[in-house]
Amino acid sequence: MSPTFGIAFGGGGARGLAHIHVIEALDELGIRPVAISGSSIGAIMGAGMAAGMTGKDMQDYTRSVLSRRVEVATRMWRARPGTFAEALQGGLRVSQFNVERILRAFLPDAIPESFAELKIPLKVTATDYYGHRLKVISDGELHSALAASAAIPAVFRPVMRDGRLLIDGGIYNPVPFDLIEKDADIIIAVDVVGAPTEAERKHPTSVDLMFGATQLMMQSIIANKLKQCRPDILVRPAVSKYRVLDFMKIDALMNETVDIKDELKREIELVMEARAGVAVKGRRGKRVG
Question: Does the predicted model carry a pTM greater than 0.70?
Answer without folding.
Answer: yes
